[in-house]
Each structure stands twice: as structure tokens, then as C-alpha cells.
Amino acid sequence: MARHEKRFPNRTGYNSIYMSSVPQEFRPIMWSYDFDQIDPAEDKTALVVQAINYGTLAHWRWLVKSYGREGVREVLSHIPATALRPRARRLASLVFGIGRFNYAPRGTH
């Protein structure tokens, strides 16, 4: 089995070993969600945003192991910049190589 096949055994690109369920360590940072109902594939954006904003290095590592750096980068590049705390946004931009976040245009009132 090739190294790539071992790491990403399914066609979605997610690592199925880590994607079967969300670790209990995420429960405190997912306080506003029904933790037992969280699906790692369906709730990817919520998991990434909460882990970047409130998580530890262990949470960030789980994100990378589960979704890959490119998967996390994709989520971060599509969410509004205001979804992330300023300090977390700066760190995430360095760690994940995000050159520019989405900023909502200001209204013309």
C-alpha cells in the first residue's frame, strides 16, 4: 500500500481513522453544539472555526490529521474573516498560508 493510500484511504480526501468521530477534547470548544450529533464531515466548518478560535495545539493537529492542511486552508479561505478572532486569524494565516481572508463589503447606507 502506497504512503498516500495509507494516509487517505477513502476518496473524500479525509483520513477515515480520525473522521469516525470527534475526540472528546473538542467538547469544551463546541459548547454551543449538540456534541453527540456532530459529524466530522458535515460539520467541518464549525469544527475548524471553533478549533482555530478556542482550541489548543492538539485541536489544530487533529484538524490537519483529519482534513489535511489544504482542507483547513480551504475552509479558512471561504469563511468571513470576522468569524475568527483577530489573534487566531493572524496565527492561522501564518500556519496555513492564508494570504487573504474574505472580508464582507461594507454597506452603502
Secondary structure layout:
Blueprint lengths: L2 H5 L8 H4 L24 H11 L2 H22 L7 H11 L13
Helix pairs in contact: 3-4
Short note summarizing the structure:
With 109 residues, the chain is an all-alpha fold. The protein has five helices and no strands.
Low-confidence stretches: 1-12
Distance between the termini: 60 Å
* Proportion in helices: 40-55%
Quaternary structure annotation: single chain
Helix- and strand-based class? Answer: mainly alpha
**Sheet having the most strands:** none
The mean pLDDT is 84
User: N-to-C SSE series?
Assistant: HHHHH
Strand content: under 5%
- What best-fitting shape do the alpha-carbon axes yield? globular
How large is the radius of gyration? 15 Å
The strand count comes to: 0
- How many alpha or pi helices? 5
